[in-house]
């Protein structure tokens, strides 16, 4: 089971099937939308 985690706010975005336990970092929609306001 893999987990997709937002690198900006550390919230869990999604889970996906994988052979190993994996954590991938991306940006969630909320953080992507707010990047211009920072």
TrEMBL record:
- InterPro entries (alphabetical): SR1P (IPR025236)
Superkingdom as given in the UniProt entry: Bacteria
- Please name the Pfam families in this protein's record: SR1P
Spell out the protein name for this chain. Answer: GapA-binding peptide SR1P
């Amino acid at each position: 089971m893999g987990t997709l985690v937002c690198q900006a706010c550390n919230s869990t975005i999604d889970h996906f099937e994988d052979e190993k336990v994996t954590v991938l970092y991306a940006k969630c929609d909320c953080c992507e939308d707010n990047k211009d306001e920072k």
